[in-house]
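Hi R.,

Here's the chain you asked about this morning:
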Amino acid sequence: MSAVLDDPMFHLRPMRDSDIAAVMAVELRAYPHAWTEGIFRDCIRVGYQCWVATRGDDLVGHAVMSVAVGEAHLLNICIDPASQRQGLGRRLLRRMLRCAGELQADTAYLEVRAGNVAAQALYESQGFVQVGQRRDYYPAGEAREDALVYAKTL
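And here is the predicted structure, written out as tokens:
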């Protein structure tokens, strides 16, 4: 992970409409049930915290978070599968949590697939704790997968 932290080519910046095609390419590589282009455009339009992670000219990740009445909801955090396990997700998550604090949120929430053990480990390493479960929340082929609800006091 230290290579990413010292990587001068790695940057985080707010998402722009012109990023949507690259965001969609990452989203489709990472998730079998990806968000749509319209969802991302709406999130930017309504003023959600929408960020991208770039390495050089390549967009390698993105995150979307809503913040209102003291609560931050991390709605999407995604790193291109080819760039995972390099500390990028941790760095992007930390940026989103800083944004939440700057916007006066006192608690951050997120949902994670019950089967996504790597993401759960990341969230727990950053102080999130499981506070609930949503049964059959995520599509998973012919079946559905539970979501684990996590929270962190900021």
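One quick note: The chain is about 30% helix and 40% strand.

Cheers,
M.
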